[in-house]
Amino acid sequence: MSYKKFRLPPWERSKGLSSVLKPLGWLYGAGIEIRNRLYDWGLFKSHFLPIPVISIGNLAVGGTGKTPLTIEITKGLLKRNPDLKLGILSRGYRRKTTDRWIVSDGKEILMGVAESGDEPRLIARSLPGVKVFVGADRVAVAKKALARFDLDLLILDDAFQHRRIHRDVDILLVDAETGLGGGRVLPSGPLREFPWNVKRATCLVVSRFNERIHPDIRRFCPPEIPIFKVRMAVSGIQDAMSGEVVPLEEIRNKDVWGVCGIARPASFLKSLEILKLRLAGFSAFPDHHDYTERDFQGILQEAGEEAPVVTTEKDWVKWEGRHPFRKVYVVPAHLEFIEGEEIYDFIEPFVYNKRKGVEGGVI
User: 121: exposed, middle or buried (C-beta count within 10 Å: 0-12, 13-18, 19+)?
Assistant: First the structure.
């Protein structure tokens, strides 16, 4: 099977290179630590919103499943309270425009993927009826959203390091297998800040759990912070164009070509193996990759015109209406909480017990 790889980050490429870069990691981490202390001491201002705020984020760069967790938490909250008026605010990584901020008004999606970014677009497609906003200045966008829409709750996607908005619940996502990256900070390791900042979290969600939690997590997580565990559930495959579920027997007798542009391509490859698909080849691109016509033609040349292509939901939102393939399948994946609904029992009191307030402090 052909497997087209992309360039790995330095900490995965070479232990020696990671060690050489360690002093730069200390400097970067120290800068973030100073910024954290300035927020802790009140010298940098956190803006209080008059509605409850849940933040979902992580310490490491890419690949832990923040967007699937945001979608799953939203679905779980709405299942328990269908009348909840909920909005989601994302930064919109690598989007092409900055003047628009409403991805979905809860009735229709108002931006293309280039305008919104791939993850906000995926969130909007996955959560019809939920308002989705995007913008680098999340304080300004939050204020505009509250002025225009009647919201009960705001969820911040990928916001553990974004401390300009005060949050009532800080959900920190950590990978069960890689843990906290050996404590190494960018560019020496995958962490955005030093591992002891786990203590800022209200709770931890450990992703890709399989009977074992990396010892780093136990080492740095204070005992009073609860830990919930999730695993990725892969149950089937869909026709990308129609969205209809395809019987696995229909596709298992075909040679398919896998393609993804995510932080952990091996996790998608594993999903295809779980489904027992017959892979002729697999092409992996960098996370958030902007597919070009040349990329599509390269895949088409390798896979052949007749081979069905299988990709992720995150990639499909960038392919729709642009790809040259005859048949595309999407593998929908969602997170499953091992403890059932215990996480909602834990976070809901923070959400529903908050009294309305004004910016600058909760009354």
Answer: buried
